[in-house]
Amino acid sequence: MTPNDWHYEPFEPTGSAIGFRIKGKLDEVQSPFQKIEIYESTDWGNLMLIDGAMMLTTRDNFFYHEMIAHPVLFTHPAPKRVVIIGGGDCGTLREVLKHPGVEKATQCDIDEQVTRMAEKYFPELCESNGDARADILWDDGLAYMKNCEPGSVDIVIVDSTDPVGPAEGLFNAAFFADCARALKDDGILVQQSESPLALLDLIKEMRVEMGKAGFTTFETLPFPQPCYPTGWWSVTMARKSGGFDFREADARAKAFDTRYYTADIHIGARHLPPFVADALKA
Amino acid sequence: MTPNDWHYEPFEPTGSAIGFRIKGKLDEVQSPFQKIEIYESTDWGNLMLIDGAMMLTTRDNFFYHEMIAHPVLFTHPAPKRVVIIGGGDCGTLREVLKHPGVEKATQCDIDEQVTRMAEKYFPELCESNGDARADILWDDGLAYMKNCEPGSVDIVIVDSTDPVGPAEGLFNAAFFADCARALKDDGILVQQSESPLALLDLIKEMRVEMGKAGFTTFETLPFPQPCYPTGWWSVTMARKSGGFDFREADARAKAFDTRYYTADIHIGARHLPPFVADALKA
């Protein structure tokens, strides 16, 4: 790759591509699980690719990390015990730990090398790794959820790569059943759920699999995410029973800064565009 | 270009790119103003490119056309006379004419060939061209606004290409002053205003130019737009005085279908993320 070349990522399932202008490659490691590459870009800071797929950029990861963390944490009535499956870059963990009520947040990513690369090239995402409430494991997330004490967890956040390769098992009913068992009755599962424009079928399939595992109510929240295919992404929350009561007053009174998330953004995201709402109803 | 090739569009100002998987090229014409190309894609329907820049796809143009038309039409108290500068694909005109109160909508695009290509490859966008209230001109939008009778227009919609080439003059104070003169006192100007992530400076500069022309209040609304750089786009409304009073009840009671726009989406878009709001305040 020559200086100021372009990195293009064609995404077969959507027939669309994204790309970034690159200054050069900073690092590459082949872990036991996947190839991790770090590039320096001209306008987006550093980029992390896993097996050739864009994972995050310095400039725009805040959309994703804020939206996978704060909506679910401001929906659960009093989240104390949080588990993050995947999330090895530690950006989700950092957002979770901004909530003072959280007593313990376990991050279980299968690949230690993702965290080592994040520490080096995205140090801002790792700034809460030393928090006494942070419990950072490098282990199999499937096994972790299977062995979790039943009814011990308030929130499970599945912050995974796409449903291929190491993350494939994180999108089926067997895994979701383990999440359901680990969660308390009022617990909430949240998972990154791909593009609400081009991958609506995947969101529907995910909800079906969650349904087989005992989840009965769902809420999908869209948000912009330039470094993912179509630039528009989503998270989906699931509960075993009951609806999603947004703690709006607490969100308005939050004592920490965010760049994208606000109570109003949260409320806005709950109102799906008709073409998404209709597809998810069908 | 071979079948099932990829068309990539690197966008220099943002250092990011988009792309689509292509079945083949359907048409190409060099008008007196620009080169217009039509491609058939595998997943996005037809694509129109002008001078190499993606203008619209069959699949995702509804975001843009709905968001440049309905928010301003549901903000003006009683829009009867609408002028569209640019908009040669006729998709904005179609959305405007869904409002029964509109008595006349003039579309003035410099390039007849854009409309001819739209008629052939995006016929659904042209389905209201025969409406008795539609007034379709192919002429210089700058001259049209300069010669408009003062105080005769309720809404001016600037549905232009990027601020280079033929559209460059549509982003400066001289043009905006002509818009201000043509508008009634309670009239509203709305313009596509590029990416609120990567092109925030452009939105700020546009507001400065609008301010020089006598506009005093502004409202920028973001929305997803996968076929434009970063996948996140915006429109900016401007008024000579007063705020933006959303006719929410009318929007909720609208008698026509939309795929993205709703009253709730409109309300959501009015709440800017902190990083955008802060930048526009600065």
TrEMBL record, chains A, B:
Gene from which this protein is expressed: speE
Class in the EC hierarchy, top level: transferase
PROSITE patterns for this protein: PABS_1, PABS_2
Keyword entries, A-Z: Polyamine biosynthesis, Spermidine biosynthesis, Transferase
PABS domain residues: 7-240
Protein name: Polyamine aminopropyltransferase
Functional note: Catalyzes the irreversible transfer of a propylamine group from the amino donor S-adenosylmethioninamine (decarboxy-AdoMet) to putrescine (1,4-diaminobutane) to yield spermidine.
Residues of the active site: D159
